[in-house]
Design a protein that fits this description.
Low-confidence stretches: 1-7
Structural class: alpha+beta
Distance between the termini: 42 Å
Helix content: 40-55%
Shape: globular
Radius of gyration: 17 Å
Order of helices and strands: EHHHHEEEEHEH
Number of helices: 6
Largest sheet: 4 strands, mixed
Length: 158
């Protein structure tokens, strides 16, 4: 199994502006027009600092002049997720939300109080589990790591 992980465990900083510019460029490379609704969707998502639902996106943008309909919003979320620009994050309640990310292999830590998301690289912690499972004859082909807890701000307020 080739390991797509980095071993350094670095937290990845993701600015709104950089994410937005990279996504708009990716849309153009994919041959998609930069319509007003698409730009409004990308701009709204770029401004989100916590996971959101596709329904929240639709509700936030439906009254705007760009006239973003439910189908357009859901198609945009699906394309962004398929291309690696959105991560699907399962909440402790079992439902799914979305968070800005970058294409490639990353892991997430989600604050259970405010929903803040930390994106980090590194899979060193998976190595011992993978070795143990392989010793039992199980071939690991991939993994997803989502950690839940309190962010620094919420921990300080507790």
């Amino acid at each position: 199994m080739s390991d797509p992980c980095h071993e350094d465990g670095a937290v990845i900083e993701l600015s709104e502006h950089e994410w937005q510019q990279q996504v708009l460029a990716a849309l153009q490379v994919d041959g998609q027009r930069l319509t007003a609704p698409r730009q409004a969707i990308v701009r709204w998502i770029a401004a989100q600092h916590t996971p959101f639902s596709a329904e929240a996106l639709t509700a936030a943008l439906s009254p705007q002049p760009a006239s973003v309909g439910r189908a357009t919003a859901y198609r945009a979320v699906e394309w962004l997720r398929d291309q690696g620009w959105l991560a699907r994050v399962q909440t402790e309640r079992g439902d799914y939300t979305y968070a800005r990310t970058l294409p490639g292999h990353h892991h997430h830590a989600v604050c259970t109080r405010c929903g803040a998301l930390l994106m980090f690289e590194g899979c060193a912690m998976i190595d011992s589990l993978t070795s143990m499972l392989e010793a039992q004859g199980f071939q690991v082909q991939g993994h997803i790591v989502e950690l839940f807890g309190l962010c620094a701000t919420c921990k300080a307020q507790k």
